[in-house]
Amino acid sequence: MKQDYYKVIGVMSGTSLDGVDLAHIHLTLYNDKWTFKIIESETVGYSQNWITQLKSAIDYSEIALKKLNEEYTKLLATIITGFIEKHKIQNLDAVCSHGHTILHQPEKGVTLQIGNLPEISSLTHQTVVCDFRVQDVQLGGQGAPLVPIGDQLLFLEYDYCMNLGGFSNVSFEQKGKRIAFDISPVNTVLNYYANQLGLDYDDKGQLSRTGEINQDLLSQLNLLEYYHQKFPKSLGFEFVKAIITPLIESFKISIKDKLRTFIEHVALQTALALPNKKGQILVTGGGAYNDFLIERIQHHLPEMKLIIPAAKILEFKEALIFALLGVLKLRGEINVLSSVTGAKIDHSSGVIYLA
Q1: Residues contacting residue 287 through CB under 8 Å, at least 6 positions apart
Q2: Each residue of 30-66: pLDDT tens digit?
Q3: With CB atoms 3.0 to 4.6 Å apart as the test, which of 7, 19, 38, 234 could cross-link to 144 if both were Cys?
Q4: Are 22 and 38 in contact (CB under 8 A)?
Q5: Which residues, given as ranges, of the chain have pLDDT below 70?
């Protein structure tokens, strides 16, 4: 008989490179409905050396990537162990870890999340469930987004669930199926330009607010092929490096104007992505703190109610959902939806390394 109560840690590192998100989660299944409680949560920032490595790893050789994977697995294990010791967490069922995405080219059958080597279980002395994306790509899927099954099981009361992170993604129900896809880059681009001004990020969008929209750049961004493709579809940092950044850099305008124009682009693409422009949308991820971005999304979606939740859910929703994905894998139950990723079948993805 399967248990119906789990104590797990969800671990997530996103493309915006804010750090490693960790959340100690209690998950309960009662009357076929999952509920959750976030006990402790924390973001452990990366050193500047690690930020530099993770940004440049897309260009690494196979040998260099192998070494980086080994070193990052050790780093992640140290961070996880530190979190467990700091909060005196005992009797865990598992640590459920996403790892950090370096390569994501599903059209070529390639996706790589480092930090998912088998050694992570022996280094943490915990059962670890990880490497959730590879199997989906092998089954012909995008390997992303993976969060939507968590939206379906934990946040079904909202018409839409949207995460504003390094990239934005949205999920919703349509004709009895969960649909989801990546909308556009967000903080991968906004943070890049804030960094050029010596800032970690554009706090509340204050810089963007003072810039002016370059209509020619905005038009060219909106005409990019990705935005006119049908779902399932997903984005990786390759898209930013190869297409977005070169396009923006071809315009000799101020950084503030680049930020302002890109904010408008994100807001407009968000509105265009939603089939129904009315209802309630749950907004999470670091971009939810960008007041100006939220204002511009609201401007383009005047009849949509934007719900920004309490900080624990806002900041740790992805860690929470990867905790759920890990539990579903432990139970041998579906945790990836073919309606979302385009894989041949719904399936139970991930690898389990026993303690």
Answers
A1: 164, 165, 168, 186, 187, 190, 293
A2: 999 999 999 999 999 999 999 999 999 999 999 999 9
A3: 234
A4: no
A5: 1
